[in-house]
Write a structure and sequence with these properties.
Layout (H helix, E strand, L loop, with lengths): L7 H10 L16 E5 L4 E6 L5 E6 L3 E5 L5 E5 L6 E6 L5 E6 L3 E6 L5 E6 L4 E6 L5 E6 L3 E6 L5 E7 L5 E6 L5 E6 L5 E5 L5 E5 L6 E6 L5 E6 L4 E5 L5 E5 L6 E6 L5 E6 L4 E5 L5 E5 L6 E6 L5 E6 L4 E5 L5 E4 L7 E6 L5 E6 L4 E5 L5 E5 L7 E6 L5 E6 L2 E6 L5 E5 L6 E6 L5 E6 L4 E5 L5 E5 L6 E6 L5 E6 L3 E6 L5 E6 L7 E4 L5 E5 L4 E6 L5 E6 L5 E6 L5 E6 L8 E7 L5 E8 L5 E5 L4 E6 L4 E6 L4
Amino acid sequence: MKKIYLSTLLTLLLISTCYIPTLFAQSVGMPDGAIARLGKGHLFDLQYSPDGTRLAVATSAGVWIYDAITHKELALLTKHTVSIDCIAFSPDGRTLASADEKGFIHLWDTETGKHKRALKNHIGIISIAYSADGSTLATGDRSGTILLRNMWNRGTIKKRIHKGPGYIHSLAFSPQDAILASGNGDGGTISLWDAETGELNATLNRHTSSVYSVAFSPDGKTLVSGSADKTVRLWDVETGELQRAFIKDIDRTRSVSFSPDGSLFAAGDDTGTVHLFHADTGERMHTLKGHTDGVLTTAFSTDLRTMASGSMDGSIRIWEVASGENRHTFAEHYGDFSCFAVSADGRTIVSVGRDRNVCLWDATSGELQKVINRKGVGHVSDIALSSDGKTVVFDGFGGVGLWDTETGTQKKTLKWFTGDLWSVAYSPDGKTIAGGNNTKTLYVWDADTGDQKHVINEHKANVIDVAFSPNSKTIVSGGQDRTVRLWDTETGEQKKVIRIPDGGAFDVAFSPDGKTFATVNYSDKIYLWDVKTGLQKNVLKGHEKHVTAVTFSPDGKMLATGNWRGLESETGIVNILDVRTGRLLQTFAGHVNRVHRVAFVSDGNALASMSDDDGILYLWDVAVE
């Protein structure tokens, strides 16, 4: 293999990132108005460069480039407007191809990091592969179509293969470039195509469900496949005969890969396990455990010393092949931010992701301050921080956990009767916790003892969001029953019922003076209500449609809102409005799809917004002159 250099740009970026905080090493590629990025986005694919010096990771934020030895972040390649599903290095290492669900393929110069060109001809690309000589790039999509492109002629299409129906989950060229293998979603077939003519040579059909991944051995004689039928299979390429099937202790397998010397192959399954096998004997070498959710992608380094695995839990792990030890795990949320909250002084952001860890961030610098590992704890729907910042509370499927932010230990678990909690809030005075769930119930607990104070069943549908008034005396709950309800925190008595004209209340927020609260419900409106009378004070237009999140600025003069783009727009939008006049002050675009939460941080001159559709939390400069 030719040795390559991600030189000029990437070297400069490496030098600079060695001397700045973790967050600002991610500043490249941020949208206009963003001052920081927390998290790296949903992870979909990873690949080592042919010379083994770089690790490329495809995410919803772009393609991250890392030094494969030091694991230092070098660059972020951004051109895609949606998540990047798959990537591939050219055999000479000079080009990186990245493809997305909208059908765009972007080609990057790995020496400079510059964008070379974009190709587009089919929607929903989910698989990509270069031929061994680099002359052909194959892409597969959700409709069952494979395109073969002539990369020596600016990527022009030279053959279109329609396998359909069903996804083309995976593509692989044989080392001799004679065969293109596709792992199909049509019920368990593997197609072997003539790589030049596109004609079907053979069909391998011993799998009983979708084939998610295929890979050739370096000598081209063997093909390994992983399937939803919870098996991994080895095939003789020449005869098409099944050589061996691996069933024991293997779950649904989304990724298989051969080592560069062909002695080993890896299989990553939905239990979060990576299985390493000897290719010649079929004996299991290692069972690598550490991921807490399904493994999406695996890749061996070219020197065979390490292998990388990426998971739906958002983590990337680097394993030592010889010993099976986990040598490195990438820090910060690499998957989605499930939720976040801001401390009362606005200086700390606490977040939870699919990696199940709680992260505390400095809201001013964006630096990661602490990670609380929550092994064995399930999905988190919402999170809140006590006013003194010493306790974080989050809900999930199975309980409400209170954790000490200093020691990282769990203080107590609050239980409820049935259902799943969808929202949780900590009172400003630190005495009470409230939660709403999908059984139409509002729960209220004593924060010190953990005892239930009230169990309220007045809503006629799911309780989507809850919030406390600034003086902690009132709880507001928003439900899918088209009502917002105000409750006395101490007695649990219902103070008011407010009916929303055009839907439920999916996000609620009090003004800093406690006299007003705002609700949004996926329409284009923001409703402002008088807390004392329950009457509607004003209706503001926040977005063209689908307002999903709302919050007041610390001085009460501005409202921040987020939206869901639906199918018409490229990004989720964050707007800043004047509360009194409803005038639009600022607009920020950058999230992929729905903005789930917004909150002012620091002194109110910055705003945090999160989308668990792209797995990123942005900090925006909202200082208005």
